[in-house]
Amino acid sequence: LDELKRLVESRRPRWLQDERSAQVVALSIARAEADGGGGADDAAAALEDEKEEEAEQEQEQEQEQEQEQEQEQEQEQEVEEPLPGDYDRDQETETPWEVSLLDAPAWEDGVFRPWTEVRPVAATRKKGVVDAPGGLPKDLYLTANYLPSTTTRRRIKNIVVVLECDGGATAGACAPTPADRASVDRALVEADGDEKDLARILDVDASVLAGGDKTTLRQRAERAVACSTAESRRFVVVSLAEAEALRALCHSGGGAALRLRGLSATNAAFDGDSSVEASILGTTTTITTVDGQLDRRTARVLSFCDVDLDPSHGAVEQLRRCLGNEEKAAVATRCDWWEALRGCKRRSRRAWVSTPLAPLFGKATSTDAGSRGDDARATLVRCAAELDRRSMSPADCFEAFDADGDGILTRGELAVGLRWLLARARPATCLAVAVFMDADEDGMISRDEFVKAFDAKDPTPTAPPAAAVSAQDVLKCCSFSIDSITTKAVALWDARGCLANARGSRSEASIWAADLADPHWKRGMLGTATLSVPLGVFGHGSRKNPTNAKLLTISARRFKRVDVTAVRDRWLPTAVAFRRLWEITTGRTSLYVWTPVAPEGFIAIGLGVSTTPEPPALDSVRCLPQAWVVPATAKPRLLFDNVGMQSRKPGGLWRIGSMGLLALGRDRDPPELALDLNPAFTSIAPDAAAPPLPQRNMPVAYAHAAPASAAGTLPVATAF
Length: 720
Description:
The protein is built from 19 helices and 25 strands. By secondary structure, the chain is of the alpha+beta class. The longest helix is centred in the N-terminal third of the chain and has 37 residues, at about 40-75.
């Protein structure tokens, strides 16, 4: 019995995890002690039974977990199949060709053809034969045995072996192109001055960037990414049968200058490094390596042609430099051609948007150019406000950013400084500011450039360009409506976790936006187009879908031929910039409130919000003609405030106007000047004389009272 008690005590944490089990065991031991130990065997047997049952349960749980993991892995496995359809199987018999053809200065006999002439047939009839994109290197070829030249749909083999031979031309100068310089710009900001990271991002050998100071890093990077311009080499994709014959020729010591290289999904060694001898399947002694960067570029482009869905970051940058043109039409052609190739190969059907190839096909990334000017100006406005708070001038800020005190800033130093000043500055923001400041485009930022950038941070609001439809014709050709967005709203933020005051529903407050992505516009049966016009985000007193949020829409009147997009962009323009008013970072999700800067002659009646320190998109808030704006008469409702929460800027979120827009007030006071859309705006020309609006410090009457008659002007931004 004593041994049993010691065993129970030693196994108590595992066997007796709940109070009831401990009581049962204690009672059994007490009974055994009472009858002199006669029940000890029964208690021990009960404990052993419980132990065995527990072990069986653990084993069953482990088996269930293993089964669940196997099921998840089966679901995650991508099905790699070509698109269904009829494929042409003619000309599948391979035709021999003379090796002496490789030495010909021009290949015009039909045995070899460049990849620029590969025109696959898409699966959809609308696209049919797809032309090759511009930018493909002219030194990439394929044999007719690998892919015959036909206009029918064919299965395309995997690229396994590449033949490298002399191109018959002298290597030209390695001059960087505009695409090379843009790639270096992106990489410099992302690498933050680290040479190893820069080499990885640019897909170049790290030894090329070594051996210099930071002032020459940009020049070294541009030289490293430049490829030979002349066709000093030819790279030919061959079939497996051709590769077998050519390899035998290499081993026999043939006189032709050639090299066989391996290229497959599992062999990424064809990149020009000195440690990739395993990728060479055969070579002759008469061929020499000309340009290692040329090898890297060739490998990345051929992997792209082989529909590799998971290239490295550096490979994508290499492709962006090589293919160059990133205009919308060129990118669309590039994407269609790649999709047509994928449809003829045994590849995953995964959407390219979710692959590393997304930047190559037009999806914006954090380091793309985009609207860098607007992003830079908005960031500098935030920097100026932060410098004012710290009692620093732009010159003082430059001294703080200049870590080594050499009087110039590299893009890496600027990025580090911005992250220190603004806490969380994205790489895209740092790049935008660097490009904006670098007036002479030498890759460095001087003190004068830095200070002048702060003077030019506030763009002068200008009127939109001339419209195709005059102000008088807008009301004749277009119709406007106010629609509810109850079922088409997207939640942006709610007050959970903010420790808001319990009075009312402020702890349940939320902010919403209209879902304009699906679809952003639609076309009716008679050809009438309808476009949504977001005037700001919406405030609501609970986390349920807002019931009073309304959206302005514009459409062409029946039988009226008018470009509704041009009308909207002319008379309902986007904000030209944003200025941050207020923030709260104590809840589950941070909230940053922004006021839009409207062009001259227009007014923004709503606000923009974001959950990061970066401003929202400019088209998230559109502005109204001044003639269509009146003071709001509906009584505002307080949704949330941070008064008493030790906030640097106590304020409150309010719902104002007839459209349920969000507004910001000081402390718990209502917004000083709440504006709304004039109910009779459909009868007012957008360029009509605007009625005077009350000034900020004048009380505005609510509950359908007549607006104040005193004249005044509306300030562009009200940062408190």
